[in-house]
Target: proline--tRNA ligase
Amino acid sequence: MAGGEKKKSGGGGKKKEVKKETGLGLSFTKDENFGEWYSEVVVNGEMIEYYDISGCYILRPWAMSIWENMQTFFDAEIKKMKVKNCYFPLFVSPGVLQKEKDHIEGFAPEVAWVTKSGESDLEVPIAIRPTSETVMYPYYSKWIRGHRDLPLKLNQWCNVVRWEFSNPTPFIRSREFLWQEGHTAFATKEEADTEVLQILELYRRIYEEFLAIPVTKGRKSELEKFAGGLYTTSVEAFIPNTGRGIQGATSHCLGQNFAKMFEINFENEKGEKSMVWQNSWAYSTRTIGVMVMVHGDNKGLVLPPKVAALQVIVIPVPYKDADTQGIFDACAATVATLSDDGIRAEADLRENYSPGWKYSNWEMKGVPLRIEIGPRDLANNQVRAVRRDNGEKTDISRVFLVEQVKGMLDKIQQNLFDVAKQKRDACIEVVKTWDEFVKALGQKKLILAPWCDEEEVEKDVKTRTRGEMGAAKSLCTPFEQPELPEGYCISRRKEYEVKAKYRILYVLYNSLLSQRKYYAGTKCFASGKPAKKWTYWGRSY
Ligand code: 87F
Model:
């Protein structure tokens, strides 16, 4: 299991010094003890500080700036879609929370309550939002009257609290986290359907273009969808080290379920009373955890240039009798040149640390590009650039500094994605039978299997794979579907006859199919019934 609470006094697992000489190294390697490695990387990389309440973490500026860089992109994109930002209160009254009780039922243990102020009990306890449907929708009901009030498209950037009990992990599973939650209402289902996919595409771009993480767009199964909605789409990422899938972000079509509950009605153009169609969508600070898990290495964080607070760190490498002031000036000038062109660069001019110590320090923090300037570089009017992702060293003439650095940052961004995709793809296993499925699961694979799409079968898969590592479940049905040969071995006419014959005993007909007597098309890996789709399966976070 990845992550986990940071253990006091060093953890307990076997320690392996990776970078003893600088005192900056990690005690665990990514391959040997992924959980401890992760905890150490987020702390030593100065993203997270552990807090004295379990499951709560301090987001330090290094993490917050990554969040802000994604936020800048997403916020601008949703504004183009005419979504407006707003802010609703943190607290939920119990009455309104109950209104959603069917859907909240499974979630109820995770809802945190305020029961006291000072020494006195509150007359009515107040819940802290785990999500804001019940907070917002009573006002949607009030604000939406006629078709001219539609669409209503609101978003809020906020924190939510879910009192999780299982294995808290920084970013990935914390009791309080930051997210954006979008809640929109439309006159027609078509408009809602369109928006679901537009938002999902933005989520894909956040992962693939900003975090350099390959994701799969798809639809959740009936068992895994948001129970309050009509259907759920998601982007799914994969962590090769743990062999676990991770839901990256979700975009739901809520249908008219909440409209019914909260009486969100409007008068349509014909003057008739209609119910709105709603969506909700969110991505959270979990994104940052996925990025750390996918790109981090035994030297620490590896940040994709597009989200890194600092893209270039410039380090002076003075020698005893060299022109130290000249080197320091060249560093400052390099930073100024890069900054002028919008590259996020800084110089580390601290005099009480050696260059070697600084290298390790900025490697731990994952800065994409390091620029070293020593006497030789000064003499040749050049700098030495070292890539964080692959260690590649290049001497760059200061004449071409900006264009070369920009080119290298782009290459790093692309390379991180390519390597991550290669590793993810190498974990994908296409299986056709239950035995293959179990074997692939044991090998920490991301499994693509033909499925009959029956809820009972998914429940059965969960039961049959229960164990210490957690059960397997469906991750998503990718929108991009490989071919699924149907190929009945009996003719359509024959099939019709069989169906007719067994009309009364339809169950028997189905069972004949599952016994593969009459069906030679692709079968469900778990039930043997005719497969309807290819679906990704695996253990997940
Ligand atoms: C935990 C406690 C109470 C998830 C919960 O995905 C309620 C819930 O409703 C809960 N955990 N959910 C589902 C959230 C659905 C939906 N909300 C808006 C989203 C996107 C943003």
User: Anything to note?
Assistant: The CA atoms of residues 432 and 525 lie 5 Å apart. The chain has three domains: 34-295, 312-419, 429-540.
